[in-house]
Design a protein that fits this description.
The protein has 178 residues and is of the alpha+beta class. The protein has eight helices and four strands. The chain has a four-stranded mixed sheet with strand order 2-1-3-4, with helices on one face. Strand 3 and strand 4 form a beta hairpin. The structure holds FE2/S2 (inorganic) cluster (FES). Residues 102, 104-107, 143-147, 150, 152 line the site of FE2/S2 (inorganic) cluster. The site of FE2/S2 (inorganic) cluster has 12 residues, from helix 6.
C-alpha cells in the first residue's frame, strides 16, 4: 500500500503556466524546503506550501499557483483542485479580518443565520464580499468543530463562541488595524 502511494506520479497532460511566477525570499524558500523534506511524496506538502504562499502573497494568486505547480512538479489543475476544496485557501484578495460563520446544524439551529445577517448589515456587505476598505470579509463555512458552543464564527485563526448580537458587536468593534 505505502509502495503504491509512493509511486503516484503527476499526470502527463501539458501544463499551461502563466507567464509570471511568484518568487520568495531565501528565508521563505528555506521554510518551504523544510516542509518538503518531511514527506516521501512531494505533493503531500501541498497544503503547508499553499499556506505559505497565501501568507506571503495575501491570497493564492495565479503566479503563486504557478510557483506551487513548479515546486511540487504538479499540473496547475492539481493545485486548483486542492485550493478550491478548502475554505481556508483564498483565490481572491481577502479582508484583513476574515469572518467565517459556521452554517452547519448546531450553529444553524442556534441562530447562525441571524449572526450572518447581522454581520452583513453591520459591515454593509453580502456573504462572499469584502468591505471597500479591505478590512473585513464575510463567509459561511461548514462545521468548525465547535458545535457545543454554537453559534460561533472564526475570525482569522481565532474562534468566537456562544455568540449573541451584542458579542458580535464587541468582537467586530475590537478588530482594529494594527
Ligand atoms: S455546527 Fe457549528 S461548529 Fe459544528
Amino acid at each position: 500500500m505505502s509502495q503504491q502511494l509512493i509511486n503516484i506520479q503527476p499526470l502527463s497532460q501539458p501544463v499551461q503556466m502563466p507567464d509570471e511566477m511568484a518568487t520568495f525570499s531565501a528565508e521563505v524558500e528555506a521554510e518551504i524546503d523544510r516542509h518538503l523534506a518531511k514527506y516521501p511524496v512531494m505533493r503531500s506538502a501541498i497544503l503547508p506550501l499553499m499556506f505559505i504562499v497565501q501568507r506571503e502573497r495575501g491570497y493564492l494568486d495565479p503566479p503563486g499557483v504557478s510557483y506551487l505547480a513548479k515546486r511540487l512538479n504538479l499540473r496547475i489543475t492539481d493545485i486548483w483542485e486542492v485550493a478550491t476544496f478548502y475554505s481556508m485557501i483564498h483565490m481572491q484578495p481577502i479582508g484583513k479580518y476574515h469572518i467565517q460563520v459556521c452554517k452547519t446544524l448546531s450553529c444553524k439551529l442556534l441562530g447562525a443565520d441571524k449572526i450572518t445577517r447581522y454581520c452583513a448589515e453591520k459591515l454593509g456587505i453580502k456573504v462572499g464580499e469584502t468591505t471597500a476598505d479591505g478590512r473585513f470579509s464575510l463567509s459561511e463555512v461548514e462545521c468548525l468543530g465547535s458545535c457545543g458552543t454554537a453559534p460561533m464564527f472564526q475570525i482569522n485563526f481565532d474562534y468566537h463562541e456562544n455568540l449573541t448580537l451584542e458579542k458580535v458587536d464587541q468582537i467586530l468593534d475590537s478588530c482594529h488595524d494594527a
